[in-house]
Amino acid sequence: LQVLGVWAVVLVISLSCLLLLSLWRQRSGRGKLPPGPMPLPILGNILQIDGKNISKSLTNVSKVYGPVFTLYLGMRPTVVLHGYEAVKEALIDHGEVFSGRGNSALPHLGVVFTNGNRWREMRRFSLMTLRNLGMGKRSIEDRIQEEAGCLVEELRKTKSSPCDPTFILGCAPCNVISSIIFHSRFDYEDLHFLKFIQKLNENQEILSSAWIQVCNNFPVLMDYFPGSHKTFFKNVGDMKEYFLEKIKEHQEFLDMNSPRDIIDCFLIKMEEVALILVNDLFAAGTETTSTTLRYGLLHLLKNPEVTEKVQEEIDHVIGRHRSPCMQDKSSMPYTEAVLHEIQRHIDLVPTSLPHTVNCDTKFRNYFIPKGTTIITSLTSVLHDSKEFPNPEKFDPGHFLDKNGKFKKSNYFMPFSTGKRACAGEGLARMELFLFLTTILQNFHLKSVVDPKDLDTTPVSKGLVSVPPAYQICFIPV
């Protein structure tokens, strides 16, 4: 045993020396990576990152090393871009070089995590198909309006009693995606639908946990240790089985000359990727919108004076006797500012999804080798104090000029920017406007506690900012 102990110590020391030598060569070879804190052997800088608030950790490091710095998450170098100028320079000015998608130990599929020609083809086809099915046209707007009406009826069933809006707000955007993909929607009391929403909610919370951040940097842990990643894998597997059943149903009744929905379009074009895209659209198109709505209602509860102004604008522009439509948005600058401020303030995806550089590149006099992971801090852009005075305060005035007209900002990047910006941005913007205005047209919002006592601090700020649980009463107007 003593001999084994000695050999174990020798092995650890040898590996540590090899790692340090590798780091030294990487930093002093053909150029140098951006500066950063000295990494520990094997662990790198992972102990300096708070898994529950990654963006705050990155901000702290940037105060020492500037807007472009290197962290080692495990043994892999990761270049972090902090602040609007660095993010814009990389993702827009050098968009092609920085358009690669970083790897993850968890099973990500489809447009989001593909690279190269496969990514370009799938993204192009996805956008074209969505446009053909009505993205930006009346057909998808009609679907959202119909679902908004169903959402109102479901909220009426609460009879003004306190409720946690998580599930109901998750159903609405999920049904919009379902109508686009499956040409059908679910009843809000459908047991399969309830389980489906539960799995989506559960997976989002798992993805934002500190444990998953550790697993992403040390994938071997997932093979030998129990943890929430097992639940994640099971949920993904269950959803894929459900999607496969739906795809098989479409195959039976496929009309090559008359596609009904996005699955039909993909079965005609490229059958093998239909499952991949369906999984992508449900995962990205449901939880992000529902979480934004849930977080947005929390801020409206916290700021009743803001809610009152939005409802005044709804009364003036839309009235009570017709459903809101996208044409109304241009006449509602305050509501538009509120929607932007909700997305800015909640900072839903603080570090976006990881990028990689597609080739060896020189960036700000630093050398970044091909394949290096790139993290962009969207928090540092959305909470920039020069562009948004007092950025930690919820203030729709950040997006209004002195005359009360809506004011655009280049710093508004909740969907990221550049070639890898969210492909579903148009759909998400449409849903947020129509769902929120329809809710506020039909209900007054009431908190069960004093609005001043509501806490809007996220319970986790890993991959996604997860809002705290709260109770709300929907009082019919």
Automatic annotation (TrEMBL):
UniProt-listed GO biological process terms: organic acid metabolic process; xenobiotic metabolic process
Pfam families for the chain: p450
SUPFAM superfamilies (alphabetical): Cytochrome P450
Subcellular location(s) per record: Endoplasmic reticulum membrane; Microsome membrane
UniProt GO MF annotations: heme binding; iron ion binding; oxidoreductase activity, acting on paired donors, with incorporation or reduction of molecular oxygen, reduced flavin or flavoprotein as one donor, and incorporation of one atom of oxygen
EC number: 1.14.14.1
Protein's UniProt keywords contain Heme: yes
Residue ranges crossing the lipid bilayer per the database entry: 6-24
Residues where heme binds: 422
Secretion signal, residue range per the UniProt entry: none
Keyword Iron: yes
Membrane topology according to the record: Peripheral membrane protein
Main location class: endoplasmic reticulum
EC category: oxidoreductase
Protein name as catalogued: unspecific monooxygenase
Organism: Sciurus vulgaris
Phylogenetic lineage: Eukaryota, Metazoa, Chordata, Craniata, Vertebrata
